[in-house]
Design a protein that fits this description.
The complex is a heterodimer of chains A (about 130) and B (about 110). Chain A has about 130 residues and is an alpha+beta fold. Chain A is built from five helices and eight strands; from the N terminus they run E-H-E-E-E-E-H-H-E-E-E-H-H. The longest helix of chain A has 10 residues. Chain B has about 110 residues and is α+β, with helices and mostly antiparallel strands. Chain B has one domain: SH3 type barrels, CATH 2.30.30. In chain B, strands 2-3-4-5 form a four-stranded antiparallel sheet. A two-stranded antiparallel sheet of chain B has the order 6-7. The chains are: A alpha+beta (about 130), B alpha+beta (about 110). Chains A and B meet through strand 1, helix 1, strand 4, strand 5 and helix 2 of A and strand 1, helix 1, strand 3 and strand 4 of B.
Chain lengths: ~130, ~110
């Protein structure tokens, strides 16, 4: 055993980055695997979806259900990243994943495509960024 | 057999001793790297449980608990570090410590 981490203080709500140092959101919760006769294992890190709604409050869960017509699957829009994919822990947590492959990024991408791009000047900034 | 539980479902849960008395609420989980042949994993080694004595009923929300922490000495505060093997998580919504409050306090004084 080596020096440890405080899961609530160091990981929960921490800013996450992918392997290209792009922001992928904040850690909404961690899934712990409870095993018989062994210490609980920190299995996965979850971002977005129903988990985020739960943490905001019951009203958000109800609002989200209403918005999706009660047909939202529990895992919809949730990114599950194995905790073993953590590469560094500091002010931000770097994970060995690619942002575009995460389900929680679909909302961000939809907003960027349908809302942000229509704001005057947004497209220009995007093009400048690519250069 | 293994089961999954979300961290945010455990934080803030009231922990009781074998006699059903309130020990405090889960405030933090300490994790350390466990090395094994297949690689390494972070495992929870300690649960930090705290209570605010007479004002415990006010300390339900995270905001209230943080505020009471900041008040420091004005509010009596009990803090216990419970090793993973001394906390029964058979029912994660009703965690139970295997030690009584007296045993935990005695251990706290020794530490």
């Amino acid at each position: 055993m080596t020096d440890g981490i405080d899961l609530r203080h160091d990981v929960l709500d921490a800013l996450l980055m992918d392997r290209n140092r792009e922001n992928i959101g904040r850690c909404d919760t961690l899934m712990l695997e409870l095993r018989d006769g062994k210490p609980p294992r920190v299995a996965t890190l979850l971002i977005g979806g129903q988990v985020r709604d739960e943490r905001i409050g019951k009203w958000m869960t109800h609002l989200s259900r209403l918005f999706h017509g009660g047909k939202r699957a529990a895992d919809e829009g949730v990114s599950r990243i194995p905790f073993a994919a953590m590469r560094s822990l500091g002010e931000t947590i770097r994970m060995d994943v690619v942002r575009d492959e995460l389900p929680s990024e679909h909302v961000e991408q939809w907003l960027a495509k349908h809302v942000i791009c229509r704001i005057p000047g947004a497209q220009g900034k995007k093009e400048q960024g690519k250069k | 057999m293994s089961r999954d539980v979300a961290l945010h479902h455990l934080l803030g849960r009231t922990v009781r001793d074998p006699d059903g008395r309130k020990v405090g609420r889960i405030e933090e989980l300490r994790a350390e790297i466990e090395l094994h042949e297949q690689g390494n994993d972070y495992v929870v080694t300690e649960f930090h449980v705290g209570s605010f004595g007479a004002v415990e009923s006010l300390a339900g929300s995270r905001f209230a608990r943080d505020l009471l922490h900041r008040l420091g000495r004005l509010v009596p505060y009990d803090h216990h570090r419970i090793p993973w093997h001394r906390l029964d998580l058979t029912d994660p919504s009703h965690p139970k410590t295997l030690d009584t409050i007296e045993q935990l306090r005695a251990k706290q004084k020794r530490d």
